[in-house]
Amino acid sequence: MDATKRERLLKAAIKMFARDGFFKAKVEEIAKLAGVATGTTYLYFKNKDDLLISIFEEEMTPLIESMKAELAKQTSPQEKIVTFIKRHCQVVEKNPDLALLLEVELRQSNKFLHEYQGTTFKEYLDLLGNAFAEGQKAGLFYQGVHPSIFKQLVFGAVDQISTNWTLSKTKNLKLSDAAEQISYVVLQGVKK
Q: Looking at CB atoms within 10 Å, which of 20, 41, 77, 85 has the fewest?
């Protein structure tokens, strides 16, 4: 199989899903935009849901690696948490089509919601949970909050604000400003 065709299909799907939405996007139009025959799409992906989940998996992998590299540069758990929040917001700002796809359209897929095992996403959130656990171990953070709750709570806040920004027509709020405010509230809330 041709890796470049697969890559073109993924890029075309990102544009189509962001522009038309997951339900309205048609595999035929994705194939046309990618410059391949419709049947070729099914050599690489079982169906539209599979295409969407493949985008998620493939886009998350470099994001995780990049996030790991950024967090490794930080010396304290607080800096790691702030870096995670800021970096996530930067990715959303720089990739609005992908952000729309991952924040809104992905949640439209029944297959994703009911069958996705979440290993890649869990790995991403664990970066945040591990930084929090490190801070607890160092005596910096309140012990009564489980790292799993912390990572879901923080990501939920970041995701909600990022989704609002992504869907906003005006983009009045800068996500970098929001990242600083989220970081402040989160760190003050768990400070020992």
A: 20
Q: What share of the chain is helix, strand, coil (3-state, %, to 5)?
A: 80, 0, 20
56 shares a domain with 123 = yes
Measure CA of the first residue to CA of the last residue in the chain; give whole Å.
55
Q: How far apart are CA 42 and CA 48, in angstroms?
A: 9
Q: What is the DSSP letter of 146?
A: -
Length of the chain counted residue by residue: 192
Alpha-carbon radius of gyration of the chain: 18
- Name every residue whose Cβ is closer than 8 Å to that of residue 34 and which is 6 or more positions away in sequence: 5, 8, 9, 11, 12, 13, 41
Q: Are both 5 and 68 inside the same structural domain?
A: no
Q: What is the pLDDT of residue 110?
A: 65
Q: Indicate whether 40 and 64 sit together in one domain.
A: no
Instruction: Determine which of 10-19, 112-121, 123-132 has the lowest per-residue pLDDT on average.
Output: 112-121
Domain around 150: 48-190
**Structure token pair of residue 153:** 């709570």
Decide: 167 and 104 in contact? Cβ < 8 Å. Answer: yes
Can you tell me the mean pLDDT for 165-189? 89
The values of phi and psi at residue 141, to 5°, are: -120, 155
Identify whether residues 18 and 34 lie together within a single domain: yes
